[in-house]
Amino acid sequence: MNRRDFLRTTAVGAAGLSLVGLPFSAEAAQSINLTILHTNDQHSRIEPFPDDGRKYGGMGGMSRRATLVEQIRKEEPNVLLLDAGDIWQGTPYFNFFNGELEFKLMSDMKYDAATLGNHDFDNGLIGLERQLPHARFPFLIANYDFSDTILKGRFQPYKVFEKQGLRIGMFGLGIELEGLVSKNNFGETVYQDPVAVAREMVQELRQQQKCHLIICLSHLGYSYQEEKIDDIKLAKQVAGIDLILGGHTHTFLELPELIRHASGHETLINQVGWSGLFLGRIDFSFNKNSKRRTDMRTALLPVNRPVTSS
Amino acid sequence: MTRYFSKSISALLLLLSLASCQRAWVASPNLETTDVPVEKTIVPDPELEARIAPYREQVTEKMAEIIGRAPVELGTADYQSPLGNFVVDLMLAQARERYEGEIDMATTTNGGLRIPIPMGYVEMGTIFELMPFENELVVLTLDGHTVKAFFDVAAEAKYAPVANATYTVKDGKAMDIRIGEEPLKLDQNYTLVTSDYLAGGGDNLSMFKNALKTEKVGLMMRDAIIEQIRELTAKGQAIGADTTMRVTVLP
Question: Coiled-coil stretches, from where to where (chain B) (predicted)?
Answer without folding.
Answer: none
